[in-house]
Design brief:
It comes from Leucogyrophana mollusca. With 578 residues, the chain is of the alpha/beta class. The protein is built from 16 helices and 27 strands. α2 crosses α3.
Length: 578
Protein backbone atom coordinates (compact mmCIF):
# COMPACT_ATOMS: atom_id res chain seq x y z
CA UNK A 1 0.00 0.00 0.00
CA UNK A 2 1.16 3.56 -0.71
CA UNK A 3 2.58 4.64 2.65
CA UNK A 4 6.31 5.10 2.77
CA UNK A 5 9.01 6.75 4.87
CA UNK A 6 11.75 8.57 3.01
CA UNK A 7 14.48 6.22 1.75
CA UNK A 8 16.97 9.11 1.67
CA UNK A 9 18.69 8.28 4.95
CA UNK A 10 18.54 9.36 8.61
CA UNK A 11 17.62 12.84 9.75
CA UNK A 12 20.28 14.72 11.80
CA UNK A 13 19.49 16.49 15.06
CA UNK A 14 17.11 19.45 14.74
CA UNK A 15 17.54 22.07 17.49
CA UNK A 16 14.22 22.90 19.15
CA UNK A 17 15.42 25.76 21.37
CA UNK A 18 16.53 28.30 18.73
CA UNK A 19 14.72 30.99 16.85
CA UNK A 20 15.27 31.04 13.09
CA UNK A 21 17.41 34.17 13.48
CA UNK A 22 19.65 32.44 16.05
CA UNK A 23 19.91 29.29 13.94
CA UNK A 24 20.83 31.30 10.84
CA UNK A 25 23.08 34.03 12.21
CA UNK A 26 24.58 32.59 15.40
CA UNK A 27 24.59 28.79 15.51
CA UNK A 28 26.73 26.06 14.01
CA UNK A 29 25.47 22.62 13.03
CA UNK A 30 27.38 19.47 12.02
CA UNK A 31 25.69 19.50 8.60
CA UNK A 32 26.62 23.14 7.96
CA UNK A 33 29.74 23.76 5.85
CA UNK A 34 32.24 26.45 6.80
CA UNK A 35 31.71 29.50 4.60
CA UNK A 36 34.84 30.54 2.74
CA UNK A 37 36.56 33.77 3.83
CA UNK A 38 35.36 36.80 1.94
CA UNK A 39 32.19 35.17 0.64
CA UNK A 40 29.25 37.55 1.19
CA UNK A 41 25.78 36.48 2.29
CA UNK A 42 23.73 38.81 0.08
CA UNK A 43 24.64 40.47 -3.21
CA UNK A 44 22.22 43.16 -4.35
CA UNK A 45 21.62 42.28 -7.98
CA UNK A 46 21.43 45.68 -9.63
CA UNK A 47 24.12 47.53 -7.67
CA UNK A 48 26.42 44.60 -6.91
CA UNK A 49 26.56 45.67 -3.25
CA UNK A 50 27.84 42.86 -1.01
CA UNK A 51 26.70 42.30 2.57
CA UNK A 52 28.46 39.94 4.96
CA UNK A 53 27.47 38.20 8.19
CA UNK A 54 28.72 40.81 10.64
CA UNK A 55 26.92 43.63 8.83
CA UNK A 56 23.71 41.58 8.77
CA UNK A 57 24.00 40.82 12.49
CA UNK A 58 24.66 44.46 13.34
CA UNK A 59 21.76 45.71 11.24
CA UNK A 60 19.48 43.07 12.72
CA UNK A 61 20.40 44.09 16.28
CA UNK A 62 20.04 47.78 15.45
CA UNK A 63 16.60 47.31 13.90
CA UNK A 64 15.41 45.12 16.77
CA UNK A 65 16.52 47.72 19.30
CA UNK A 66 14.99 50.53 17.23
CA UNK A 67 11.65 48.71 16.97
CA UNK A 68 11.71 48.17 20.72
CA UNK A 69 12.63 51.77 21.51
CA UNK A 70 10.21 53.53 19.18
CA UNK A 71 7.29 51.10 18.88
CA UNK A 72 7.67 48.82 21.92
CA UNK A 73 7.58 45.74 19.68
CA UNK A 74 7.68 42.74 21.98
CA UNK A 75 6.64 39.12 22.48
CA UNK A 76 3.99 37.88 19.99
CA UNK A 77 3.51 41.25 18.27
CA UNK A 78 3.23 40.96 14.49
CA UNK A 79 5.55 42.80 12.12
CA UNK A 80 3.87 42.85 8.71
CA UNK A 81 6.16 43.37 5.70
CA UNK A 82 4.36 44.65 2.61
CA UNK A 83 7.13 45.02 0.08
CA UNK A 84 8.93 43.50 -2.87
CA UNK A 85 12.35 42.06 -2.12
CA UNK A 86 14.79 44.43 -0.44
CA UNK A 87 18.30 43.98 0.98
CA UNK A 88 16.90 44.66 4.47
CA UNK A 89 13.86 42.38 4.11
CA UNK A 90 15.49 39.47 5.92
CA UNK A 91 17.05 41.86 8.44
CA UNK A 92 13.49 42.88 9.33
CA UNK A 93 12.47 39.22 9.66
CA UNK A 94 15.38 38.42 11.96
CA UNK A 95 14.90 41.60 14.00
CA UNK A 96 11.31 40.57 14.71
CA UNK A 97 12.54 37.15 15.83
CA UNK A 98 15.18 38.67 18.15
CA UNK A 99 12.28 40.43 19.90
CA UNK A 100 10.08 37.33 20.15
CA UNK A 101 7.70 38.81 17.58
CA UNK A 102 6.10 37.17 14.56
CA UNK A 103 6.64 38.18 10.93
CA UNK A 104 3.91 38.15 8.28
CA UNK A 105 4.82 38.83 4.64
CA UNK A 106 2.21 40.35 2.34
CA UNK A 107 2.11 40.20 -1.45
CA UNK A 108 3.37 43.61 -2.67
CA UNK A 109 0.75 43.53 -5.44
CA UNK A 110 -2.14 43.41 -2.97
CA UNK A 111 -4.92 45.92 -3.30
CA UNK A 112 -6.03 47.98 -0.32
CA UNK A 113 -8.83 45.53 0.55
CA UNK A 114 -6.52 42.51 0.35
CA UNK A 115 -3.94 44.20 2.56
CA UNK A 116 -6.59 45.28 5.06
CA UNK A 117 -7.65 41.64 5.30
CA UNK A 118 -4.10 40.53 6.19
CA UNK A 119 -3.50 43.43 8.57
CA UNK A 120 -6.72 42.62 10.40
CA UNK A 121 -6.24 38.85 10.39
CA UNK A 122 -2.74 39.12 11.87
CA UNK A 123 -3.46 42.09 14.18
CA UNK A 124 -0.32 43.73 12.83
CA UNK A 125 1.51 46.11 15.19
CA UNK A 126 3.69 47.84 12.57
CA UNK A 127 3.91 47.79 8.78
CA UNK A 128 7.23 47.81 6.95
CA UNK A 129 6.76 48.78 3.32
CA UNK A 130 8.55 49.93 0.19
CA UNK A 131 8.20 53.50 -1.13
CA UNK A 132 6.42 52.12 -4.20
CA UNK A 133 3.87 50.43 -1.94
CA UNK A 134 3.42 53.25 0.56
CA UNK A 135 0.17 54.68 -0.84
CA UNK A 136 -1.63 51.34 -0.59
CA UNK A 137 -0.14 50.67 2.86
CA UNK A 138 -1.32 54.07 4.07
CA UNK A 139 -4.87 53.59 2.77
CA UNK A 140 -5.07 50.09 4.22
CA UNK A 141 -3.72 51.17 7.60
CA UNK A 142 -6.40 53.85 7.87
CA UNK A 143 -9.12 51.28 7.22
CA UNK A 144 -7.50 48.84 9.68
CA UNK A 145 -7.16 51.60 12.32
CA UNK A 146 -3.36 51.42 12.39
CA UNK A 147 -1.78 54.84 12.97
CA UNK A 148 0.20 56.14 9.98
CA UNK A 149 3.28 56.70 12.15
CA UNK A 150 3.48 52.91 12.54
CA UNK A 151 4.28 52.55 8.83
CA UNK A 152 8.03 52.15 8.33
CA UNK A 153 9.66 52.55 4.93
CA UNK A 154 12.53 50.57 3.44
CA UNK A 155 15.27 52.92 2.27
CA UNK A 156 15.75 53.28 -1.49
CA UNK A 157 17.34 55.73 -3.91
CA UNK A 158 13.85 56.91 -4.89
CA UNK A 159 11.77 57.59 -1.75
CA UNK A 160 8.02 57.93 -2.06
CA UNK A 161 6.85 61.37 -3.17
CA UNK A 162 3.71 60.99 -1.07
CA UNK A 163 5.31 59.71 2.13
CA UNK A 164 5.40 62.25 4.91
CA UNK A 165 8.77 63.87 5.43
CA UNK A 166 8.93 62.52 8.98
CA UNK A 167 7.88 58.96 8.03
CA UNK A 168 10.21 56.58 9.85
CA UNK A 169 12.61 54.49 7.76
CA UNK A 170 14.32 51.18 8.45
CA UNK A 171 17.73 52.86 8.26
CA UNK A 172 16.69 55.49 10.81
CA UNK A 173 15.55 52.75 13.21
CA UNK A 174 18.82 50.85 12.73
CA UNK A 175 20.82 53.99 13.50
CA UNK A 176 18.65 54.69 16.54
CA UNK A 177 19.09 51.13 17.77
CA UNK A 178 22.85 51.15 17.34
CA UNK A 179 23.21 54.55 19.05
CA UNK A 180 21.29 53.58 22.20
CA UNK A 181 21.76 51.02 24.97
CA UNK A 182 19.79 47.78 24.56
CA UNK A 183 16.09 48.22 25.27
CA UNK A 184 15.26 44.54 24.94
CA UNK A 185 16.46 41.14 26.07
CA UNK A 186 16.71 38.76 23.13
CA UNK A 187 14.09 36.02 23.22
CA UNK A 188 15.59 32.68 24.24
CA UNK A 189 13.50 29.56 23.81
CA UNK A 190 13.17 26.78 26.32
CA UNK A 191 13.92 23.22 25.15
CA UNK A 192 11.08 22.13 22.87
CA UNK A 193 9.58 25.65 22.62
CA UNK A 194 10.79 26.05 19.03
CA UNK A 195 8.03 23.63 18.04
CA UNK A 196 5.27 25.91 19.33
CA UNK A 197 6.65 29.47 19.17
CA UNK A 198 5.25 31.09 15.99
CA UNK A 199 7.84 32.62 13.66
CA UNK A 200 5.67 33.37 10.61
CA UNK A 201 2.08 33.93 9.65
CA UNK A 202 2.35 33.09 5.96
CA UNK A 203 -0.80 33.19 3.90
CA UNK A 204 -1.68 30.10 1.91
CA UNK A 205 -2.26 30.57 -1.82
CA UNK A 206 -5.20 28.17 -1.88
CA UNK A 207 -7.37 27.90 -4.98
CA UNK A 208 -10.67 28.55 -3.23
CA UNK A 209 -11.85 30.81 -0.44
CA UNK A 210 -9.96 33.64 1.20
CA UNK A 211 -6.26 33.15 2.06
CA UNK A 212 -5.56 31.48 5.38
CA UNK A 213 -2.85 32.51 7.86
CA UNK A 214 -0.52 29.54 8.25
CA UNK A 215 1.10 29.60 11.71
CA UNK A 216 4.66 28.34 11.22
CA UNK A 217 6.85 27.71 14.29
CA UNK A 218 10.61 28.42 14.33
CA UNK A 219 11.32 24.70 14.38
CA UNK A 220 9.66 24.15 10.97
CA UNK A 221 11.98 26.14 8.64
CA UNK A 222 14.98 25.00 10.70
CA UNK A 223 13.85 21.39 10.24
CA UNK A 224 13.31 21.87 6.52
CA UNK A 225 16.77 23.37 6.11
CA UNK A 226 18.31 20.36 7.87
CA UNK A 227 16.14 17.95 5.87
CA UNK A 228 17.40 19.50 2.64
CA UNK A 229 20.97 19.37 3.93
CA UNK A 230 20.65 15.68 4.80
CA UNK A 231 19.04 14.87 1.44
CA UNK A 232 21.91 16.55 -0.40
CA UNK A 233 24.62 15.10 1.87
CA UNK A 234 25.77 18.61 2.66
CA UNK A 235 29.23 18.84 4.25
CA UNK A 236 29.95 15.21 3.31
CA UNK A 237 32.55 13.90 0.84
CA UNK A 238 30.05 11.66 -0.93
CA UNK A 239 31.59 12.28 -4.38
CA UNK A 240 34.19 14.43 -6.14
CA UNK A 241 34.08 18.10 -5.14
CA UNK A 242 33.20 19.26 -8.64
CA UNK A 243 30.16 16.96 -8.70
CA UNK A 244 28.74 17.88 -5.29
CA UNK A 245 25.38 19.58 -5.68
CA UNK A 246 25.74 22.33 -3.02
CA UNK A 247 29.14 23.78 -2.11
CA UNK A 248 30.28 26.83 -0.13
CA UNK A 249 31.05 29.63 -2.54
CA UNK A 250 28.52 28.63 -5.20
CA UNK A 251 26.17 31.51 -6.07
CA UNK A 252 22.38 31.28 -5.92
CA UNK A 253 19.93 33.57 -7.70
CA UNK A 254 17.09 34.86 -5.51
CA UNK A 255 14.34 36.17 -7.77
CA UNK A 256 11.50 34.50 -5.88
CA UNK A 257 9.46 36.76 -3.54
CA UNK A 258 10.59 36.62 0.07
CA UNK A 259 7.05 36.86 1.42
CA UNK A 260 6.43 33.42 -0.14
CA UNK A 261 7.63 30.30 1.66
CA UNK A 262 9.61 28.99 -1.35
CA UNK A 263 11.72 32.15 -1.51
CA UNK A 264 11.88 32.55 2.26
CA UNK A 265 13.11 29.07 3.23
CA UNK A 266 14.52 27.09 0.29
CA UNK A 267 15.89 29.94 -1.82
CA UNK A 268 17.50 32.00 0.95
CA UNK A 269 17.80 30.35 4.38
CA UNK A 270 18.91 27.02 2.93
CA UNK A 271 21.37 28.81 0.63
CA UNK A 272 22.83 30.66 3.62
CA UNK A 273 23.16 27.32 5.45
CA UNK A 274 25.08 25.95 2.45
CA UNK A 275 27.58 28.81 2.59
CA UNK A 276 26.34 30.29 -0.67
CA UNK A 277 25.67 33.99 -1.31
CA UNK A 278 22.30 34.88 -2.77
CA UNK A 279 22.01 37.42 -5.56
CA UNK A 280 18.89 39.25 -4.44
CA UNK A 281 16.75 40.81 -7.15
CA UNK A 282 15.10 43.90 -5.69
CA UNK A 283 13.14 45.12 -8.71
CA UNK A 284 10.12 43.69 -10.50
CA UNK A 285 11.02 40.51 -12.37
CA UNK A 286 12.25 41.27 -15.87
CA UNK A 287 13.27 38.24 -17.90
CA UNK A 288 15.95 39.96 -20.00
CA UNK A 289 17.51 41.47 -16.88
CA UNK A 290 17.33 38.02 -15.24
CA UNK A 291 19.38 36.54 -18.09
CA UNK A 292 21.95 39.31 -17.71
CA UNK A 293 22.09 38.69 -13.95
CA UNK A 294 22.86 34.99 -14.39
CA UNK A 295 25.77 35.90 -16.67
CA UNK A 296 26.97 38.96 -14.71
CA UNK A 297 27.20 37.22 -11.34
CA UNK A 298 28.20 33.81 -12.76
CA UNK A 299 25.23 32.32 -10.93
CA UNK A 300 25.50 28.57 -10.38
CA UNK A 301 22.17 27.77 -8.69
CA UNK A 302 18.64 28.57 -9.83
CA UNK A 303 15.42 27.93 -7.90
CA UNK A 304 12.56 28.86 -10.20
CA UNK A 305 8.86 28.47 -10.96
CA UNK A 306 7.20 27.19 -14.18
CA UNK A 307 6.47 30.59 -15.82
CA UNK A 308 10.19 31.39 -15.68
CA UNK A 309 10.97 27.98 -17.16
CA UNK A 310 8.56 28.60 -20.03
CA UNK A 311 10.40 31.83 -20.80
CA UNK A 312 13.78 30.09 -20.65
CA UNK A 313 12.55 27.46 -23.09
CA UNK A 314 10.72 29.78 -25.46
CA UNK A 315 12.29 33.26 -25.43
CA UNK A 316 14.58 33.96 -28.41
CA UNK A 317 17.08 35.95 -26.28
CA UNK A 318 18.18 32.79 -24.43
CA UNK A 319 20.24 31.63 -27.42
CA UNK A 320 22.55 34.63 -26.94
CA UNK A 321 23.83 33.34 -23.58
CA UNK A 322 26.22 30.62 -22.48
CA UNK A 323 24.91 29.05 -19.28
CA UNK A 324 27.47 26.27 -18.98
CA UNK A 325 28.48 27.62 -15.52
CA UNK A 326 25.03 26.86 -14.05
CA UNK A 327 25.33 23.76 -11.85
CA UNK A 328 21.84 23.32 -10.36
CA UNK A 329 18.27 24.12 -11.33
CA UNK A 330 15.08 23.07 -9.60
CA UNK A 331 11.48 23.97 -10.31
CA UNK A 332 8.67 24.15 -7.76
CA UNK A 333 5.09 25.45 -7.37
CA UNK A 334 3.52 23.41 -10.21
CA UNK A 335 4.31 20.28 -12.24
CA UNK A 336 6.34 20.62 -15.44
CA UNK A 337 6.15 18.58 -18.64
CA UNK A 338 8.91 16.31 -19.91
CA UNK A 339 9.16 18.39 -23.08
CA UNK A 340 10.18 21.49 -21.14
CA UNK A 341 12.56 19.52 -18.93
CA UNK A 342 14.35 18.16 -22.01
CA UNK A 343 14.72 21.68 -23.38
CA UNK A 344 16.31 22.77 -20.08
CA UNK A 345 19.04 20.17 -20.51
CA UNK A 346 19.97 21.79 -23.82
CA UNK A 347 20.12 25.26 -22.25
CA UNK A 348 21.97 24.19 -19.07
CA UNK A 349 24.20 21.31 -20.25
CA UNK A 350 26.18 20.97 -17.00
CA UNK A 351 23.41 21.45 -14.45
CA UNK A 352 21.69 19.07 -12.07
CA UNK A 353 18.05 19.50 -13.11
CA UNK A 354 14.86 18.28 -11.48
CA UNK A 355 11.65 19.26 -9.76
CA UNK A 356 10.74 19.89 -6.14
CA UNK A 357 7.43 19.92 -4.32
CA UNK A 358 6.23 21.59 -1.16
CA UNK A 359 3.54 23.69 0.44
CA UNK A 360 3.27 26.64 2.80
CA UNK A 361 1.73 24.26 5.35
CA UNK A 362 4.83 22.02 5.23
CA UNK A 363 7.12 25.05 5.55
CA UNK A 364 8.30 24.30 2.07
CA UNK A 365 9.95 21.21 0.65
CA UNK A 366 8.47 17.72 0.94
CA UNK A 367 10.23 16.20 -2.08
CA UNK A 368 13.13 17.09 -4.34
CA UNK A 369 15.01 15.12 -6.98
CA UNK A 370 17.51 12.61 -5.55
CA UNK A 371 21.31 12.82 -5.72
CA UNK A 372 21.32 9.61 -7.72
CA UNK A 373 19.77 11.45 -10.69
CA UNK A 374 21.75 14.35 -12.08
CA UNK A 375 18.82 15.07 -14.40
CA UNK A 376 15.40 13.77 -13.55
CA UNK A 377 13.24 14.12 -16.67
CA UNK A 378 10.63 11.59 -15.56
CA UNK A 379 8.12 14.21 -14.48
CA UNK A 380 8.64 13.24 -10.85
CA UNK A 381 8.51 15.98 -8.21
CA UNK A 382 11.36 14.13 -6.51
CA UNK A 383 11.95 11.87 -3.55
CA UNK A 384 10.62 12.29 -0.02
CA UNK A 385 13.05 14.22 2.16
CA UNK A 386 14.55 12.53 5.24
CA UNK A 387 12.06 12.58 8.09
CA UNK A 388 9.00 12.60 5.82
CA UNK A 389 6.38 9.84 5.85
CA UNK A 390 3.79 10.00 3.08
CA UNK A 391 0.54 8.28 2.23
CA UNK A 392 -1.52 8.29 -0.93
CA UNK A 393 -5.20 8.11 0.00
CA UNK A 394 -8.22 7.22 -2.11
CA UNK A 395 -11.41 9.33 -1.92
CA UNK A 396 -12.94 6.76 0.47
CA UNK A 397 -10.03 7.23 2.90
CA UNK A 398 -8.32 3.90 2.21
CA UNK A 399 -4.66 3.70 1.19
CA UNK A 400 -4.03 3.63 -2.55
CA UNK A 401 -1.58 1.16 -4.05
CA UNK A 402 1.82 2.31 -5.25
CA UNK A 403 1.49 4.07 -8.63
CA UNK A 404 -2.25 4.58 -8.05
CA UNK A 405 -3.64 8.15 -7.99
CA UNK A 406 -4.83 9.60 -4.72
CA UNK A 407 -4.41 12.53 -2.37
CA UNK A 408 -0.96 13.05 -0.87
CA UNK A 409 -1.05 13.06 2.93
CA UNK A 410 2.31 13.70 4.61
CA UNK A 411 3.92 13.84 8.04
CA UNK A 412 7.08 15.96 8.35
CA UNK A 413 8.99 17.69 11.16
CA UNK A 414 8.61 20.96 9.22
CA UNK A 415 4.81 20.95 9.56
CA UNK A 416 2.98 24.17 10.41
CA UNK A 417 0.89 24.35 13.56
CA UNK A 418 -2.50 25.44 12.22
CA UNK A 419 -4.45 27.99 10.25
CA UNK A 420 -4.46 30.83 12.73
CA UNK A 421 -7.95 31.79 13.82
CA UNK A 422 -9.56 29.18 11.57
CA UNK A 423 -10.27 25.97 13.52
CA UNK A 424 -12.57 24.55 10.82
CA UNK A 425 -9.92 24.73 8.08
CA UNK A 426 -7.30 23.50 10.55
CA UNK A 427 -9.36 20.41 11.34
CA UNK A 428 -9.78 19.65 7.64
CA UNK A 429 -6.09 20.00 6.72
CA UNK A 430 -4.05 19.12 9.84
CA UNK A 431 -5.24 15.70 10.94
CA UNK A 432 -3.49 13.91 13.85
CA UNK A 433 -0.06 15.23 12.84
CA UNK A 434 -0.64 14.61 9.13
CA UNK A 435 -1.03 17.23 6.40
CA UNK A 436 -3.73 16.76 3.79
CA UNK A 437 -2.12 18.52 0.82
CA UNK A 438 -5.15 18.63 -1.50
CA UNK A 439 -2.88 17.46 -4.34
CA UNK A 440 -3.48 14.34 -6.38
CA UNK A 441 -0.31 12.32 -6.84
CA UNK A 442 1.10 8.91 -7.56
CA UNK A 443 3.91 7.51 -5.40
CA UNK A 444 6.28 4.71 -6.36
CA UNK A 445 8.16 2.35 -4.06
CA UNK A 446 11.28 4.57 -4.19
CA UNK A 447 9.39 7.37 -2.46
CA UNK A 448 9.16 9.43 -5.63
CA UNK A 449 6.06 11.61 -6.01
CA UNK A 450 4.40 12.39 -9.32
CA UNK A 451 2.07 15.37 -8.90
CA UNK A 452 -0.94 15.13 -11.18
CA UNK A 453 -2.79 18.28 -10.14
CA UNK A 454 -4.78 19.99 -7.45
CA UNK A 455 -7.73 17.74 -6.63
CA UNK A 456 -10.12 20.67 -6.99
CA UNK A 457 -8.70 21.44 -10.43
CA UNK A 458 -9.08 17.97 -11.93
CA UNK A 459 -11.38 17.88 -14.96
CA UNK A 460 -13.77 14.95 -15.08
CA UNK A 461 -14.67 14.01 -18.67
CA UNK A 462 -17.20 11.20 -18.90
CA UNK A 463 -15.87 9.80 -15.64
CA UNK A 464 -12.21 10.06 -16.68
CA UNK A 465 -9.87 12.31 -14.68
CA UNK A 466 -7.97 14.82 -16.84
CA UNK A 467 -5.11 16.81 -15.28
CA UNK A 468 -4.90 20.37 -16.66
CA UNK A 469 -1.13 20.43 -16.11
CA UNK A 470 -0.68 17.48 -18.47
CA UNK A 471 -2.56 19.25 -21.27
CA UNK A 472 -0.70 22.51 -20.59
CA UNK A 473 2.63 20.75 -21.05
CA UNK A 474 1.46 19.42 -24.40
CA UNK A 475 0.06 22.76 -25.59
CA UNK A 476 3.28 24.58 -24.67
CA UNK A 477 5.08 22.35 -27.15
CA UNK A 478 3.09 23.97 -29.98
CA UNK A 479 5.35 26.49 -31.80
CA UNK A 480 2.77 29.33 -31.72
CA UNK A 481 2.11 29.10 -27.97
CA UNK A 482 3.93 31.25 -25.39
CA UNK A 483 1.80 30.37 -22.35
CA UNK A 484 -1.42 28.57 -21.48
CA UNK A 485 -3.89 27.61 -18.79
CA UNK A 486 -6.42 24.78 -19.11
CA UNK A 487 -9.72 24.89 -17.21
CA UNK A 488 -12.97 22.97 -17.20
CA UNK A 489 -16.26 24.07 -18.75
CA UNK A 490 -19.53 22.31 -17.98
CA UNK A 491 -21.01 20.06 -20.65
CA UNK A 492 -24.40 18.39 -20.58
CA UNK A 493 -23.14 15.15 -22.11
CA UNK A 494 -19.62 14.75 -20.75
CA UNK A 495 -19.98 16.55 -17.43
CA UNK A 496 -16.91 18.71 -18.05
CA UNK A 497 -14.65 19.48 -21.02
CA UNK A 498 -11.14 20.98 -21.16
CA UNK A 499 -10.84 24.52 -22.54
CA UNK A 500 -7.45 26.13 -23.16
CA UNK A 501 -6.73 29.80 -22.66
CA UNK A 502 -3.67 30.51 -24.81
CA UNK A 503 -1.13 33.33 -25.04
CA UNK A 504 0.41 33.44 -28.51
CA UNK A 505 3.90 34.50 -29.51
CA UNK A 506 4.00 38.00 -31.07
CA UNK A 507 4.03 36.97 -34.73
CA UNK A 508 1.03 34.58 -34.67
CA UNK A 509 -0.76 37.00 -32.33
CA UNK A 510 -0.36 39.73 -34.95
CA UNK A 511 -1.83 37.44 -37.62
CA UNK A 512 -4.92 36.76 -35.50
CA UNK A 513 -5.54 40.48 -35.02
CA UNK A 514 -5.82 41.09 -38.76
CA UNK A 515 -7.53 37.88 -39.83
CA UNK A 516 -10.35 35.93 -38.19
CA UNK A 517 -9.50 33.06 -40.51
CA UNK A 518 -5.90 32.97 -39.27
CA UNK A 519 -7.16 32.96 -35.68
CA UNK A 520 -9.40 29.99 -36.38
CA UNK A 521 -6.61 28.12 -38.17
CA UNK A 522 -4.28 28.55 -35.18
CA UNK A 523 -6.99 27.38 -32.78
CA UNK A 524 -7.61 24.29 -34.89
CA UNK A 525 -3.87 23.63 -35.11
CA UNK A 526 -3.53 23.73 -31.31
CA UNK A 527 -6.54 21.44 -30.88
CA UNK A 528 -5.12 19.01 -33.45
CA UNK A 529 -1.75 19.06 -31.71
CA UNK A 530 -3.37 17.92 -28.46
CA UNK A 531 -5.60 15.36 -30.25
CA UNK A 532 -2.54 13.90 -31.98
CA UNK A 533 -0.64 13.50 -28.71
CA UNK A 534 -3.29 12.62 -26.13
CA UNK A 535 -6.01 10.01 -25.66
CA UNK A 536 -9.39 11.00 -27.11
CA UNK A 537 -11.07 12.07 -23.87
CA UNK A 538 -8.24 14.56 -23.24
CA UNK A 539 -8.78 16.53 -26.43
CA UNK A 540 -9.68 20.22 -26.14
CA UNK A 541 -13.35 19.66 -26.75
CA UNK A 542 -14.12 22.85 -24.82
CA UNK A 543 -12.14 24.85 -27.37
CA UNK A 544 -9.30 27.38 -27.40
CA UNK A 545 -9.52 31.05 -26.44
CA UNK A 546 -6.78 33.63 -26.88
CA UNK A 547 -5.80 35.99 -24.04
CA UNK A 548 -3.00 38.50 -23.54
CA UNK A 549 -1.60 36.92 -20.37
CA UNK A 550 -2.31 34.08 -17.96
CA UNK A 551 -3.06 35.32 -14.42
CA UNK A 552 -0.62 33.97 -11.84
CA UNK A 553 0.31 34.71 -8.30
CA UNK A 554 3.89 35.85 -7.55
CA UNK A 555 4.96 32.33 -6.57
CA UNK A 556 4.17 31.19 -10.12
CA UNK A 557 0.97 29.24 -9.56
CA UNK A 558 -1.71 29.64 -12.18
CA UNK A 559 -4.79 31.43 -10.88
CA UNK A 560 -6.88 28.80 -12.58
CA UNK A 561 -10.07 29.70 -10.81
CA UNK A 562 -10.01 33.19 -12.38
CA UNK A 563 -10.04 31.74 -15.88
CA UNK A 564 -12.41 28.95 -14.92
CA UNK A 565 -14.93 31.57 -13.79
CA UNK A 566 -14.35 33.52 -17.01
CA UNK A 567 -14.89 30.39 -19.12
CA UNK A 568 -18.16 29.58 -17.39
CA UNK A 569 -19.37 33.14 -17.80
CA UNK A 570 -18.57 32.90 -21.51
CA UNK A 571 -20.52 29.67 -21.79
CA UNK A 572 -23.49 31.27 -20.07
CA UNK A 573 -23.20 34.29 -22.41
CA UNK A 574 -21.73 32.96 -25.66
CA UNK A 575 -21.16 36.42 -27.13
CA UNK A 576 -19.15 37.61 -24.15
CA UNK A 577 -15.72 38.85 -25.14
CA UNK A 578 -12.46 38.19 -23.37
Amino acid sequence: MAELASPAGPLPHIPDDLTLAQFTLDAQHPARPVRKDGIPWIIEDQSGKKIGLEELRARTYGLANGLSLRYNIKEDDVVLIYSPNHVDYLVAVWAAHRLGATMSGANPLFTVDELVYQMTATKASVIITHPDSFDVALSASRTANIPSDRIIIFDTDTPSKTAAVNQCTVQALIEMGLANPPNFVERRLNPGEGKTKVAFLNFSSGTTGRPKAVAIPHYAPIANTIQLAAHHKLNQDYCKWEDQRFRPGDVCSAVLPLYHIYGLVFNTHFSFFCGMPVVLATTKFNFLEFLKSIARHRITHLMLVPPQIVLLCKHPAVKDYDFSHVRYLTIGAAPLSRELMERLVEIFPNAHIGQSYGTTESSTVITTFPLSKKRDLSGSAGQLLPGVVARVVRPDGSLADFDEPGELVAKTPSLALRYDGNPEATAETFVDGWLRTGDEVKMNRDGEIFVLDRLKEMIKVRGYQVAPAELEGCILDHPDVADTCVVSVPDEYSGELPLAFVVLHPQPAKRTESSARAAEEIKQSIMKHVADNKVAYKKLAGGVEFIESVPKNPSGKLLRRVLRDKARAMKATPKAKL
